[in-house]
Design brief:
By secondary structure, the chain is α/β, with parallel strands linked by helices. It has 2 domains: 3-97, Transcription Regulator spoIIAA; 115-314, 3-Layer(aba) Sandwich (Rossmann fold). The chain is 34% helix and 26% strand. It contains 9 helices and 15 strands. The chain has helices spanning 3-26, 66-84, 142-151, 166-173, 185-197, 212-222, 248-260, 282-287, 294-297, and strands spanning 30-35, 43-48, 51-56, 91-95, 115-120, 123-128, 156-160, 177-182, 206-209, 226-231, 236-237, 246-247, 263-273, 289-292, 309-314. Helix 1 crosses helix 2 (66-84) and helix 3 (142-151) packs parallel to helix 4 (166-173). The longest helix has 24 residues, at 3-26. It is globular, with a radius of gyration of 20 Å.
Length: 317
């Protein structure tokens, strides 16, 4: 047994021990076990029930370093098998790269139909670990899903850039009426299936395929209002389905402004971004009542990371 293998195995064991109480208490099946803890192993390791997803992240290994990659993967594979009893065929290795245009919607494996549910009590969500780079469930949004489940009763909710609808499911399960908006019909269909999985009647809710930037303008013109708006856009998108590209650092003041105009009196915008080193524009803090909520929206398995920043934004009047 090599020293390198012992180091990565011991770290996985240590992390699992730290999380054991948190995971068992919440009945959580999908979580992050490892987050580039050891510089020599620049990987993210996420668990989904009886499966593991391992992302190569950080400084990308060159083709000349294939031998190093193979050694890393062999060590990780052996450690996960030994500690978690997850065999190699249920370990999914991927390389994270910045996606451009419609690449974010293009399947890595178009033939993969292996959707299965994972528990996040009281909810469940469908994931697919091979079809796309992402799995269909953003694990770092877990506390926000729980918050929406507890605080959405009787509210009208708009979820923009809804992806596969996990936040929509949480809000609807908590008694809200939800409009979910995304450019991708694939993701909206996935969201619809997540509603059915949780035995939520989808009829009172809307699943709307649209360019969010144009949709906001149309909703402002219609005078429609919402009690809660969820805004969790990609950091960057130049999808051909959008008339203009989106850069969240540049465009978030306009997005926030447009969302605020759709809020009912006393309503709240929940704005979140995974943009690295993101800074909220000063004009937002001076115009609205802003409270950063990142400290409680980042779950224990992402502790000591800056996986996202999140804000509650309301009118001052």
């Amino acid at each position: 047994m090599s020293q390198d293998y012992t180091v990565i195995r011991n770290r996985l064991q240590k992390n699992l021990k730290k999380l054991k109480s948190y995971l068992s208490k919440g009945g959580i099946e999908a979580y992050r076990l490892y987050n580039k803890d050891i510089p020599e192993y620049p990987y993210l390791i996420d668990l989904y029930g009886e499966h593991a997803v391992i992302y190569e992240q950080g400084k990308k290994l060159s083709d000349e370093e294939d031998t190093l990659r193979e050694k890393h993967q062999a060590h990780i594979e052996q450690a996960i098998t030994e500690i978690l009893s997850i065999p190699a065929e249920r370990q999914h290795f991927k390389i994270r790269e910045r996606q451009k245009g419609n690449d974010q919607y293009r399947p890595l494996d178009p033939k993969s139909q292996e959707f299965f549910p994972v528990n996040e009590p009281p909810l469940k969500f469908l994931v697919n670990l091979e079809r796309y780079l992402d799995t269909g469930l953003f694990l770092d949004m877990r506390p926000l899903r729980q918050n929406l489940f507890l605080n959405s009763k009787g509210k009208k909710i708009l979820n923009l850039f809804c992806y596969t609808g996990s936040l929509s499911v949480a809000a609807a399960a908590g008694g809200g009426i939800v409009t979910s908006v995304d450019m991708s019909r694939t993701y909206l269909d996935w969201a619809y299936e997540n509603f059915l999985l949780n035995k939520i009647d989808p009829k009172p809710h809307l699943f709307w395929q649209a360019d969010v930037l144009k949709d906001l303008i149309a909703r402002k013109e219609s005078g429609e209002k919402f009690d809660t708006i969820i805004l969790d856009p990609p950091s960057f998108s130049n999808s051909k389905r959008m008339e203009e590209d989106l850069d969240i650092e540049r465009d978030h003041p306009l997005l926030v402004r447009d969302c605020m105009q759709l809020l009912s009196p006393g309503g709240m915008l929940i704005f979140s971004t995974n943009k690295k080193k993101f800074e909220l524009h000063s004009i937002i803090a001076s115009t609205y009542a802003v409270k950063e909520i990142s400290h409680w929206t980042i779950p224990q398995d992402f502790h000591h990371t800056e996986i996202h920043r999140a804000f509650q934004i309301q009118r001052k009047d």
